């Protein structure tokens, strides 16, 4: 992490190599503090994730990357929605995310019936409001096997207690939940 030498060119090369890992079940990518990676590089990774048809768990960190925006998040959502067997999503995302970007991402995940763990952190974004959490609440109801749930907004002052509670309604099977 924290490497200014990693940029879109290197990430695109990594993405090209992913297409050969067809039996991969877990994908971990930590690009925290890599300011030379943009949406273009991150979307190249997303495009190759489509080839990982056995993927069950995905962990991605692109926090503190000023050139990665909600366009990458929306694109990731459009890729992940195709993974029927996905059981775990853990994302730490860039700081410049709005309600609109979150809503598009959350909506794209609504049909992931086998999801057991959902961890999502939006970094230091001040933009999101309760609105995006109410959208998440409508999506989470579809995740019947969800056992672990964490949503963090590191410094968002626009989320109220009502928004914090909304996603938990109807989640009877939860073993672990964290809101911040």
Please give a structural write-up.
The protein is an alpha/beta fold. It has six helices and six strands; from the N terminus they run H-E-H-E-H-E-H-E-H-E-H-E. The chain has a six-stranded parallel sheet with strand order 1-2-3-4-5-6, with no helix packed on it. Helix 3 (70-80) links the parallel strand 2 (57-61) and strand 3 (88-92). It is globular. 34% of the residues are buried. The model has no long low-confidence stretch (mean pLDDT 83).
Number of strands: 6
**SS content category:** alpha/beta
- Quote the distance from N terminus to C terminus: 24 Å
Order of helices and strands: HEHEHEHEHEHE
CA radius of gyration is: 16 Å
Describe the sheet with the most strands. Answer: 6 strands, parallel
Low-confidence spans: pLDDT under 50, at least 5 residues? none
Short description:
With 180 residues, the protein is an alpha/beta fold.
């Amino acid at each position: 992490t924290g490497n200014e030498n990693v940029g879109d060119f290197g990430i695109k090369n990594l993405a090209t190599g992913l297409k050969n890992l067809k039996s991969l079940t877990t994908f971990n990518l930590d690009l925290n503090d890599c300011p030379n990676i943009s949406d273009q590089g991150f979307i190249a990774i997303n495009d190759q994730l489509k080839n990982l048809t056995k993927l069950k768990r995905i962990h991605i960190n692109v926090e503190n990357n000023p050139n990665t925006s909600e366009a990458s998040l929306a694109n990731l959502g459009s890729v992940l929605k195709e993974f029927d067997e996905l059981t775990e999503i853990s994302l730490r995302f860039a700081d410049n995310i709005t309600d609109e970007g979150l809503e598009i991402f959350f909506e794209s995940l609504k049909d992931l019936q086998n999801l057991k763990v959902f961890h999502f952190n939006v970094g230091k974004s001040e933009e999101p409001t309760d609105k995006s959490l109410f959208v998440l609440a409508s999506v989470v109801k579809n995740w019947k096997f969800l056992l672990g749930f964490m949503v963090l907004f590191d410094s968002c002052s626009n989320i109220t207690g009502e928004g914090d509670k909304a996603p938990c309604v109807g989640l009877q099977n939860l073993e672990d939940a964290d809101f911040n």
